[in-house]
Amino acid sequence: MSMPAAGPLCVVYVEYGGAERKVVLPLIADVLRAVPGQARYLVVVDNAGVPADLEPPIGFDGAQTIAGSNVHREFSGWQEGVEAARRAWGIDGMTLVLANDTIARNHNFSGPRKYYFRHAFERAGSDATAAVIGEIDGVPYTMETASGEIGLYVSTYLLLLTSGALDAALPLTVDVDRIDTLLHADWQNSNGTLFRDGMPVEYRKFLERWLHVAAGGWYRAEALTQDNFGFFRGKAMSIMLEQSLSARVLAGGGRLVSIWKGDGRFNGISRVLETYERKWRVPARATKWVYRPIVRSLQFLFRSGARRDVH
Fold this sequence. Notes:
alpha/beta, eight-stranded mixed sheet, 10 helices
């Protein structure tokens, strides 16, 4: 019995100024090279507001750049890109890939990481069920967010939404107004904190530790001041939108699917191997002939307990 034909695939990539484009677009094309799709489209959203002309990269049937408003950072950019794709090509039955330029700046795409993204996306590309696929992050324990209860979520620097997940996921800025009510509007009325009293207490503590405590928090964590209030308010909004996206997909009956294969034991081994490859700058040839055989052997060893879906 033949598989149903895959629908179109659309990539929406958000950047600020275009400095990383030459690095990121070939990486995305490589990750997506085996994903099923009848047609492939690319929208580049420049949140700096100065989009340059774009020829469709190899492997894409159409491409365009638009100026992003940057009103809600990458999330407004992604939503504006989705709307541009709808106007240009339609989106019915489309598989949607979201990415931003932090791939180049903050995420070292070693051979193993690219390998796992490629194969996870390939398997998901013809899946009509509701799923969001990417690298899974988590909060310390299940807690109430702006869009419902969540313990795990998919990091949005690079993810794939199957066509079945689009109803729950879009628009990507649907939770902005709700989140906005949980954040102080300005420093003068903030009492030295980003979050209003209506914020779930444990969720608030988690975000405050991540944003303002350097030890174990975000790499740009620092104490909140009048000068950086606007920056951290925007970052808090982005984090909450990121987690709310996964919460909406789960609430709609969808799944979160990790790129990392296997159960906890194999996931840990995969990350250790990747860390050593990045630290010692192992070349791609070694990845192909050394790393992958090790990975496949470990897959075989742990296959009885392996699971990739996270509910």
